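Let's sit down with a protein and look at its sequence and fold side by side. We need material for that, and I hope you will provide a protein of your own picking. Once you have written the record down, we can walk along the chain together.

***
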Amino acid sequence: MAEPSPARRPVPLIESELYFLIARYLSAGPCRRAAQLLPKRLDWEGNEHSRSYEELVLSNKHVAPDHLLQICQRIGPMLDKEIPPSISRVTSLLGAGRQSLLRTAKGTLI
């Protein structure tokens, strides 16, 4: 059986949850002022200057388009080692209670 084309491949759970979280975050308003959120650059005299998204991408070539996804994929297993979830092998960015990525050792949420 042929592999699905990249445009039609199934989206893994963590990736689809990440897209949801980003969309949810942006729907709260930051996308309306995204240009204001970009860090300014400093010139040699210490003066701040606005820069475009493209300039920011060029100055951070080490950051891949899926950088945030990679971070999210690594956070869960690291947390699970420190504070085991109530149900093992269930990986979700949207978990609640003992499955939440915001859980603490005392069972509370941050």
Summary: The mean pLDDT is 74. The first helix runs from residue 13 to 27.
